[in-house]
Design a protein that fits this description.
The chain is of the alpha/beta class and 431 residues long. Helices cover 42% and strands 18% of the residues. Helix 2 (50-66) runs antiparallel to helix 4 (83-107), helix 4 (83-107) packs parallel to helix 5 and helix 9 (254-264) packs across helix 10. The active site is at residue 235.
């Protein structure tokens, strides 16, 4: 969807070459057209039986599953992430989300309560109507599925704006399922945030607003929703601490192997994950031995063509993100951080020689540095040490972010203490 004559050419993240692919550059007029279509479908879709809505989501899941390889390649081409990840994680999870919410809606129930002999209070779920959704670029299809599947399951119609950096792959998906969808229930509007996104966020014709992305934009989204007196759901940035206690090194076993793997998950999706272990805290008594193993493993990570199924780290999503990450590497060095691994552009050969590739990087420093306190959103781990449990907790909580956290210990008592109540985070992984 896009206004006549308003198009933009997209670059390819893998090679940084302009491919002549056109994407719509929509604005408020297109948002209004999408809202018109959604409102026209609102009543009929909201009255569609739960059984039929559930069955539609199951059909969508089946269609996506039948085309996983096609969709995985489309997302890799657009985003720069490895096809090994889109094949093994992104697209299977998209399928699972549609099936999950197809089941949830069948199991949803209302409730009733006696107030007195003559009064009964009851409630039953009803669709909100038309909802607005703004999707990030790090998981273009999966984040869309997170929002679209429950909204459609609940009987809502959707107007969705993908990130301007990744506008195409969601259109490829919707083209595959278009024949399954009643007209108007799912509307995709591409464009820049200041044009299409702002128009959607401030519209008085939506009943709820959902957003995943940066903290600054999320704050603006919340204000827009408050101005319209509508509910909103936001998932914002993170600088997730992962704490590794000394006992992870007690034995050379599968647990230690998993702990090393867990730390290096910071490089999953090129570090473009809000809950990845971007801030790592290691007990000072095991720091040198543990980090030696981590670096040894990290050096085996294969970086290269994202369309090669053996590649583990691909390209960053855009020139802007590429430049941002490089600027933080420079900031880290200026702040006095010790470079343990990477720290530079990954210069590939052939078609990928000009792509947005950055070497997986590990920097050692202190928690007051900007590389610890600010979200880099790239393949960069900031590492520091702690003396005891209390200091680990203090360092972990010394951040503006509170999205996720992780703790690694063989001691179940310590895991229980660290995993419950003490963290200032929305979710904590205990391993």
């Amino acid at each position: 969807m896009g206004s006549p004559g308003r198009r933009r050419i997209l670059p390819e993240q893998l090679t940084r070459q302009w491919q002549g692919v056109l994407s719509g550059r929509s604005d408020e007029r297109d948002i209004e057209l999408a809202l018109d279509a959604a409102h026209q479908a609102r009543e009929s879709w909201g009255k569609t039986s739960v059984t039929d809505r559930s069955n539609l989501l199951l059909k969508i899941a089946d269609r996506i599953e039948q085309n996983i390889e096609y969709l995985a390649i489309a997302e890799t081409w657009e985003n720069g992430k490895t096809v090994r990840e889109t094949l093994a994680a992104d697209l299977p999870l998209v399928v699972d989300h549609f099936r999950y919410f197809a089941g949830c809606i069948r199991a949803q129930e209302g409730s009733a309560a006696d107030i007195d002999a003559n009064t009964v209070s009851y409630h039953f779920p009803e669709p909100l109507g038309v909802v607005g959704q703004i999707i990030p670029w790090n998981f273009p299809m999966l984040m869309a599925a997170w929002k679209v599947a429950p909204a459609l399951a609940a009987g809502n119609c959707v107007v969705l704006k993908p990130a301007e950096q990744t506008p195409v792959s969601i259109l490829v998906l919707v083209e595959l399922i278009e024949d399954l969808l009643p007209a108007g229930i799912l509307n995709i509007v591409n464009g820049f945030g200041t044009e299409a996104g702002q128009a959607l966020a401030t519209s008085k014709r939506i009943a709820k607003l959902a957003f995943t992305g940066s903290t600054n934009i999320g704050q603006h989204i919340l204000k827009c929703a408050a101005d319209s007196l509508i509910p909103s759901t936001v998932e914002l940035g993170g600088k997730s601490p992962n704490v590794f206690f000394a006992d992870v090194m007690d034995h050379e076993d599968e647990y230690l192997d998993k702990a090393i793997e867990g730390m290096l998950l910071a490089f999953f999706n090129q570090g473009e994950v809000c809950t990845c272990p971007s801030r790592v805290l290691i007990d000072e008594s095991i720091y040198h031995k543990f980090m030696a193993k981590v670096i040894e493993r990290a050096k085996t990570i294969k970086q290269g063509d994202p369309l090669d199924t053996e590649t583990q780290v691909g390209a960053q999503v855009s020139q802007e993100q590429f430049d941002k990450i490089l600027s933080y590497l420079a900031i880290g060095k200026e702040e006095g951080a010790e470079l343990l691994l990477g720290g530079d552009i990954c210069r590939l050969e052939g078609d990928q020689s000009g792509g947005f590739y950055i070497k997986p990087t590990i920097l050692k420093g202190t928690n007051d540095m900007r590389i610890f306190q600010e979200e880099i959103f790239g393949p960069v781990i900031s590492v520091t040490t702690f003396k005891d449990e209390a200091e680990a907790l203090a360092i972990a909580n010394d951040t503006e972010y509170g999205l996720g956290a992780g703790v690694w210990t063989r001691d179940m008592n310590k895991a229980q203490r660290m995993g419950r109540g003490a963290w200032n985070s929305g979710g904590t992984r205990v391993d």
